Amino acid sequence: MSSQKFFDKLKIQLLFSGPTLFAFFTVVILPFLYGIYLTFTNWDGVSTSHSFVGMKNYLAVLDDTAFWTSLYKTMKYVLLTVILINVVGFFLAYMLTTEIRGKNLFRAGFFTPNLIGGIILGFLWQFIFSNVLVYIGEHFKIGIFSSSWLADPDKAFWTLVIVTTWQYSGYMMVIYIAGLMNIPKELLEAASIDGANAFVRLRKIILPLMVPSFIVCVFLSLQRGFMVYDLNIALTNGGPYKSTQLVSMYVYQKAFLSQKYGAGQAEAFVLFLIVAIVTLIQVYVSKKREVEA
Amino acid sequence: MSKLKIMSAAVLSLSLLLAGCGNSAKESQQSEQKKTASSEVKITFLNSKGEIQAQLEEAAKEFSKENPGTTLEVIPAAAGQSPFEKVTSMYASGNAPTIAMLDPGDVKKFADKALDLSKEKWVNDAIDGSLDDAKTEDGKILAFPFAVEGYGLIYNKAVLDKAVGGNFDPASIKTRKDLAELIGKIQKTGVASNLLSPMDWSLGAHYLTIGYSVQSNKFEEVEAFLTNLKEGKEDLTKNEKLNGLLDTFDLLKENNINKKDPMSGTYEQGPELLGKGKVGLWFMGNWAWPQIKGFDTTNGNYGFLPVPISDNPDDYGNSQISVGVTKRLIIDKEQNSPEQQAAAKKFLEWLVYNEKGQDFLVNKANIIPAFKNITLEPQDPLAKSIKAYMNNNKTLRSMVTLPPDHWSQVGAFMQQYLDNKIDRKQLLKQIEGYWKSQQ
Description:
Organism (chain B): Anoxybacteroides tepidamans
CATH superfamily of chain A: MetI-like
Shape of chain B: globular
CATH topology of chain A: MetI-like fold
Oligomer: heterodimer
CATH class of the largest domain in chain B: Alpha Beta
Pfam family, one (chain B): SBP_bac_8
Largest interface: A-B, 24 and 32 residues
Number of helices of chain A: 12
Helix content of chain A: over 70%
Strand content of chain A: under 5%
Number of domains of chain A: 1
Shape of chain A: flat
Number of strands of chain B: 9
Protein name (chain B): Raffinose/stachyose/melibiose transport system substrate-binding protein
Order of helices and strands of chain B: HEHEHEEHHEHHHHEHEEHHHEHH
Largest sheet of chain A: none
Helix content of chain B: 40-55%
Number of strands of chain A: 0
CATH class of chain A: Mainly Alpha
InterPro entries (chain B): Bact_solute-bd_prot1 (IPR050490), SBP (IPR006059), SBP_1_CS (IPR006061)
Structural class of chain B: alpha/beta
Signal peptide (chain B): 1-19
Radius of gyration of chain A: 24 Å
CATH topology of the largest domain in chain B: D-Maltodextrin-Binding Protein, domain 2
CATH superfamily of the largest domain in chain B: Periplasmic binding protein-like II
Radius of gyration of chain B: 26 Å
Number of domains of chain B: 2
CATH architecture of the largest domain in chain B: 3-Layer(aba) Sandwich
Distance between the termini of chain B: 71 Å
Order of helices and strands of chain A: HHHHHHHHHHHH
Structural class of chain A: mainly alpha
């Protein structure tokens, strides 16, 4: 009887989740496993045959200093963008949940950059950094803008951070606004009757209650930061002289430009492990800080 | 009851979905059968020369008109995407193009997929050396030489005429000293002498590789030089020719119009500066003509100067410019039917021997063909200049079969050198390091 029930349940289950599971399995799981398999070969991406090379590709990853440099740059980029995106996003959300005029217009405005694709954004900002700002800099004699930021390795790195922050803070703002609206008004009211000023209310009530939103936003910005590719290729194209080549772009070029598919795939797998570990730690640690209202 | 309803609804929708799939599958099968029944052949052409996409589509129409029953579809490879990337993904999806336009260095990787073309008629009419890097050891010819391109220092004759006070003769520049004097003269007229564009492909694939070509006028020796580099047996800091080339680079760098901010230049800047006569010299190739034409102020008076590598006028490389086959076509034999392969062969033949095919190559697409039988004269001044160097046998063989990431890696080193971030010794050590990692 119970096994009959089990099969009934399974049937219903499969009926609804089966198609999705099938799609997930064929387009995510299978390529993932096949990719891991390829890391043990010396395939170049096209030839019909390839041979096993064992752990050679993974040893090559350890030896590839350029990979670790680009990973280090990516870490720096992720750290900076995660902080900036969330600080700016939270600040915007906080401002736009107070009683200011035209807040819906502002909300829409700050969210808009997120609707434009990374490639187009990259080209847009490339024009701004190398033409508009240079023009303004030369015209008004502002030293810092007088030459293109994209031509200088350090400044080019900052252009990536700036554009990323601009692009995603609006998105995070929406999540924070949702979080802020969910904070029970009576708590804030009670606190202000008890004499808590705005800062104390923010620190003691709003921030602790916003932890779920922070978890989501930090997770999203972490993961996007590690995986950034389109903006990287459209804005700086890794230049000048590969100084802003972030790790996704590096891995892609290793596999498809240098035509070392196995080695590139091995680097991608290492990257996957690192990103998985970092994001899991983040979620685990911040889950502990969640509180109930 | 409600469960039953849900179930039946789901089953119904699922069966609808399946039926939909089944139908379309059947339909496509039928249409395919129809095609073969009326002996229609459809072939595809992957084009990786974006600038001639429109002209190619025109040519495809012409070709179909003359060969009823054959249609040719031109598929563009996205700008900035390497043709290799595009073709491999097309192979992986079981949808390989009948004809694929590849970079010469990638051709050999398709050895087991490309049709042997050694029995084709055009093989005998191809210019000397144009098939070398498409030949396999057992005598197969894997690819058709589609375009010959060359590069060097493009000059604006109006600017140079003014600088030398009279008619400028390109043959008068034979040494670095000559070039330095010319640069001085140009600057005296109040115009910047030259532009050195900072693109990695220009510096890595074109400028630096002259240093490989000039190692010897025998190509086997150049190849031996590269093998030695791979094995770490070459000390580039002591290599006179490469250092000579870099001395010329220093000269160009010192007089670069972008000297203050050398990395800020873009490709788009070049045609405008040269065409408007704001610089006298620009290091680039004949593909830049369509863009230069847009800014031309001298009635098309342009030509190439060699990049001198020493002060001895007789040194190999001082009067030669770098020329080579830069695009090749392969025909797929793995995923295309014999009829399609035959049609593709016909198209290649059409390009070489049919009047309209030749007209497309030379006049419409501004390509310098690699065939002796095509007597049409190129229309644009840069192609004419290259033709002249070729006719006088004053060419260096372009290095087109280097490792696939050479241009990008070595290009980045050259950019650092251009931006004064590293010195000569570091540059040469990095290049040595790159080659050693290629083993």
